[in-house]
Each structure stands twice: as structure tokens, then as C-alpha cells.
């Protein structure tokens, strides 16, 4: 992998991290507004709201997991170990890193 390719992947990871953080901030603002409503709703509305809360909670967990993967990839870049399979120690192909920049394993050990 060339230095230019590494920089492109790093810029992409930083961009994805910023996007996730912005999304988290937006959702936190929406939650504060919802808490202020305090209006009684029809039971069906409450069921819908509960379902939406479950979905949002799942999405938040997914965003948090993705942030952890991004932080790990950026730390590996800083340490000089990015692009090296954590299982076998071989180089991960650029094509795989381009498709999945947070991966820590080569295609052979992806399972």
C-alpha cells in the first residue's frame, strides 16, 4: 500500500467518524425535544414510539460499534500496524481495505 493510499483511507475514516459523531449529536438533540413534549398520547401512539425507541437504540449501538472500529483502525495507522492481519501477520490487500477500511484481518481470516 502506498503512502497516498494510506492517507486516502485515513481521510475516509476520519470523515466517517465525524459523520457518526454529528449524527449522534443530532439524535441527542431530538431526544431532548421529545422529553420536553410531555403530552399524553393514544396507546397506539405510545406503542409506535416504543418501537421507534428500540430501533433508535439499536442504531445507536451500531454507531458506537462503528466508532470503536474506526478508532482502532486510526490507532493502528498511528502505530504503523494498519493493513496487517491480526491473525497471520500478512499484509491485507488494498482492495479489501478500500472496501472495508476498519478490517483487521485478511480475507483468509475474515470468518
Structural features:
mainly alpha
Helix content: over 70%
Which structural class is indicated by helix and strand composition? mainly alpha
Low-confidence stretches: none
Percent of sequence in beta strands = under 5%
End-to-end Cα distance: 23 Å
Tally of strands: 0
Note the main sheet: none
Shape: elongated
Helix count equals: 3
Structure, explained:
This protein is mostly helical. Helix content is about 70%, strand content about 0%. It has 3 helices and no strands. It has helices at about 5-35, 45-80, 95-100. The radius of gyration is 19 Å and the shape is elongated. The two termini are about 25 Å apart. The mean pLDDT is about 85.
Outline the secondary-structure elements.
Elements: H1 3-37, H2 43-79, H3 94-99
Sum this structure up briefly:
The chain is mainly alpha-helical and 111 residues long. Helices cover 70% and strands 0% of the residues.
